[in-house]
Hints:
Radius of gyration: 36 Å
Structural class: alpha+beta
Distance between the termini: 43 Å
GO molecular function: hydrolase activity
Largest sheet: 8 strands, mixed
Helix content: 25-40%
CATH topology of the largest domain: Rossmann fold
Number of strands: 38
Family: Belongs to the ABC transporter superfamily.
CATH superfamily of the largest domain: Alpha/Beta hydrolase fold, catalytic domain
InterPro entries: AAA+_ATPase, AB_hydrolase_1, AB_hydrolase_fold, ABC_transporter-like_ATP-bd, ABC_transporter-like_CS, Galactose-bd-like_sf, P-loop_NTPase, TAT_signal
Strand order of the largest sheet: 1-2-4-3-7-8-9-10
Protein name: CocE/NonD family hydrolase
Amino acid sequence: MRVRLPSLSRRQIISGAVALVLVVGLVGWASAPKPKSFRTTDQMITVKTGPDDGSEVTLDTTLYLPKSAGAGDPVPAVLLAHGFGGTKQSVRSDAERFADQGYAVLTWTAQGFGRSTGEIHLDSPDWEVKDAQRLIDWLAARPEIRKDGNDPKVAAVGGSYGGALSLLLAAQDARVDAIVPMITWNDLVNVFLPGGVFKKQWAGEFFGSSENPANPQCGRFAEDICKAYLDIATTGRSTPATEALLRKSSPSQVLDRIKAPTLLIQGQVDTLFPLSEGDANARGIAANGTPVRVAWYTGGHDGGSGPQSEVDRLRQLSDQWLGHYLKGDGATPPTSFTYSRVSGLNAQGRGLVTAASSVDAYPGLNNVGAAVTLQGPDQRIASPPDGNPAGISSLPIAGLSGLLGAAGAGGITQEIPGQHADFVSTPVGAALDVAGAPKVRLRVASPTGEATLFVKLYDVPAKGEPSVPDGLIAPIHLTGLPKNIGDAVPVTVTLPAVVHRFEAGSRVRVTVATADTGYWSPTEPVVYTVALDGSVDLPAIAGTPLANPDIVWRYVLAGLLAAIALGLAVVLVLARRRARRIDRSVDAELVDTPLVVRGLRKEYKDFVAVARVDFTVRRGQVVGLLGPNGAGKTTSLRVLMGLTRPTAGEILVFGHRLLPGAPVLSRVGALVEGPGFLPHLTGAQNLELYWKATGRPAEDAHFEEAYEIAGLGSAVNRRVRTYSHGMRQRLAIAQAMLGLPELLVLDEPTDGLDPPQIAEMRKVLRRYATGGRAVLVSSHLLAEVEQTCTDVVVMHRGEVVAAGPVDEIVGESPSVQLDVSDVDAAEKVLQELTGVRSVAWSGGRGLVVDIDGAPRAEVVAALVKAGVGIDRIAPRRRLEDAFLSLVGGDTKASGERP
């Protein structure tokens, strides 16, 4: 039957038109490009620099100046510094945002990078910091910049390399009125030699990012910096001179001089500059009474910028801070502490969802929490020569870390057998929210009197793989150790600060390893003995949840939603009227029949995809839906699964007419659009998440049975990113089978599988159709359908041309296989013979000929008369022959002769 839409009254048409105009207008206004409120000027500025101002460097700069700024309306300025290896272009988007808010923004490429001259001194007060001071001088001479006397109103903002510059600049130049340093360091000695162990991979990433053909070994690094790196990288140890050089570029030495109000933003997913670096900066600056606010977020050098909600939150904090301390707008910002925790996955598979919280004052890293008892005997572990092989806790490589995302750093851990000791808790009874630096006490014995170890905190969930939160570990170098563990004195190890939730049922594990890819290890092999002394202390914070930042788009969205709601109200009225006309009756005679399709038709604007389809699927059957490309198979399945509406006809599932959201659909499982899974979750976790999304009771899921039928085995506990295409297909089949539906609908389930996998899928489908269940499967592999299915439905040009048991369809195929000397000549002769219905090329010199009505002897005689040699003639009684016979000359499904 053809579905007719209800007629609309004049009032309904007017209401719908008004809603449409509002929606289109709001969307157009929101998406229309806005004219820039600022102008930009590029300039190469030469400044005097160096310890005695005896050197000059030329800096590549861009000034972003609001169009309204001038001598009569001066504006405050922001010095915006880029990260290591970047240029002024790296911060362009942030510069434009600040300029839109009415600030003059000066960006520049630091010396030693890009088009700027000079060398890299790692934010030395004598070089890069002095460069920034000269840029403040340059701003102070411009009439568009607001001043207090001769003192320009200026803030310093930057991340990583630029963040340390803002701290060092504020300590060296009292003209700086506010700073916003982000994901940066406190002490470069602690950064690159944490616990006395050289962080070789991150150091190499820094050093390897500078290229200079004139000096391939040092690049554009200053000679003293180059020598310090080469010395440490060679020996794995620092010297007093090297440490003094690194500390010269460390804010730790000058925090007591910083008087500019400071907003410190530090990343929680950062193996380069962990939270402890930001904590040291916060405590050092606040000790002198300078206003300090601290914010943590779910990103960093390993985690990137985090979800958009995190970006919005940090922008709001920065805007509020600069608005008050630089512009003089608004009330004094609070010094409350904010942080975030990953709370789940975006329902659309677009990254992580975070939840932000706040406490009144920054508590530091050593918060009161829970002491979790760990168990495990004294253990002997081997330190391999030169740290090879080594375990993996993270991949601290800029760029690769960003590809892994915020969850990636904790999902790539690997331990080497015999090289680590594990101490594990019993399952926790309730969820534990950790926020701070955990601590553990260890006892260590070494035959050499010293040991280099890597201590890690693991989350071991009840289901899924263990992970190190954010990939953060504590390297330690111990000296003065006894040879016997009984003589060892407990050592307290402070682990990196994390924000992490241990779910109920998870175990807490502390692992002590002897080598890690990110760090230097001793060259000589040795065996240590490690013992645990008690428990691990897990700190916590009781924060108040925060709403997302109040940004203007909320109001735009509210207006848009109101307009949409108005339109939906009109649609709802129409839908209710239409719903009253829908036939919801049940055909009592078909309540035990899985599927009946009657007169199905689907039209699009310019063509008919399905003209008329009728077939039935009964219990115990595996029905194959066949047809050449364009026959309408997939369209029919999409209609069947409610993914598109039919133009006419009806579909009955166990006697119920197929309607969107009908309860009878819970008796149907399907794979129509192809498998889509979250790659960082295991197969089991993906299926559990899918089942929760259906809203059906947990007890209705049959996970173990689905795993067994699909033949997944232990692979369900591996992350999906490790699956082959065939394993993903099996997982998709298992997902469709979870509720053990009475009708299973599959579109090309063997797509991409190799022959052994196809054979296994054949067994899967046969097993499933036992016990009164039924399967409908669409496939272009005719031989597989013949071996797998009990029945077939053949479609051609949108219609069913044959349906029935496979044996009957095959038996009706009057085809022969001919191997001839000249395929083209033979094809021409055969097509002219009376009674020959079709001729199809089968590869090489072969032809499949439907000789229904023509004696085989006449076919041979005609070919011989035409001079065509016949090497072989044999009967063909296969599904492929029947298929070719039914679809005539349309051979797209089986391959055409080139």
